[in-house]
Amino acid sequence: MSAGIHGLILAGGASRRMGTDKAHLEWRGEGATLRLGRILSRVCSRVFLSRAPGQDVPEGWEESEVIRDLEVASGPLRGILSAFEKHPDAAWLVVAVDQPLVDEALLHRLVEGRGEGVHATCFLDSDGEWPDPTCALYEPTFPEAARPWATQGKGCPRKVLINTPSRVLPSPGAILRDADSPEERLALSSLLGAPMDIVLEHFAMVRDHVGLAREDVTTVAPDLACLWEETRRRLRLPFERTAFRPVRNDAFAAWSDPIRPGDRVAFLPPVSGG
To answer: What does residue 96 show for φ and ψ, rounded to 5 degrees?
Structure first.
């Protein structure tokens, strides 16, 4: 008899390439963890959020719904094995927080394709080359199968999927793409978001480079970091983001702050003042 299925959102990474905690990003105007939690709840009996010790609990979650990483293995494998420590008899349907295209239909396909006598069921990745470990269904036998890698401190579950009995389903394509950096986030946002009209104001060296003080822009960038990347490419700016601070509607903002239709945005170097 198949084990009951719990859902797990992997959101315990350091988000170094993104530059901000991916658990606090928004997609389609909805928090990343809340969106995946809503989708997983339609497929799983319970849903939990994987977080490292010391990481805060995103809005909409309770600490009782969070599974903290234990000192076992590393990376995504640590989050998965920590979930099994909490509920060893459950199967875990795991999705990474940076896979914003994953939807309910895909998760149903994964569950319906569940293999017998295997430690996990997964898809080939978006390129159709390797098993994707961050959108996968892990059976209660998985921790024992993963033990040789966990005891060596390894962090990628893909090694376990490749080297132990697993069922690998055909790649569903781009839906498994992840957003690990502002550039990748911008690319995926173009598939998700509706275009917005905003005002982009230029100051100091940006104005000198562009030759404009203001322009009306239509963008799909979900936040200020992605808008900077979009602007940098479009205007061929020879500057690094670290030299600027974002301003939205006359107030300094965080790079992770979302963009709304009608916003007025500027990127100010520190010497420009407020």
So the answer is: -80, 145
Distance CA 27, CA 94 (A): 19
> What CATH number has the domain spanning 194-272?
3.10.20.30
User: What strands, in cross-sheet order, belong to the sheet with 264-268?
Assistant: 214-219, 196-201, 264-268, 245-248, 251-252
Domain ranges of the chain: 5-176, 194-272
Please give the single-letter amino acid code of residue 195.
P
Which distant-in-sequence residues (6+ apart) come within 8 Å of 25 by Cβ? 18, 31, 32, 185, 222, 223, 256
CA distance 53 to 50: 10
**Whole-number pLDDT of residue 274:** 43
Note the pLDDT tens digit of each residue in 166-198. Answer: 999 999 988 899 999 988 988 887 777 667 899
Helix, strand or coil, per DSSP, at residue 207: helix
Q: H or E segment at 32?
A: helix 32-41
Pair 19, 43: CB distance under 8 Å: no
State pLDDT tens for residues 78-130. Answer: 999 999 999 999 999 999 999 998 989 999 999 999 988 999 999 999 889 99
Is the pTM of the predicted complex or chain greater than 0.90? no
Tell me: pLDDT of 273 over 80: no
Task: For residues 30 and 262, give the distance between their C-alpha atoms in angstroms, rounded to a whole number.
Answer: 19
5-176: what fold? Spore Coat Polysaccharide Biosynthesis Protein SpsA; Chain A (3.90.550)
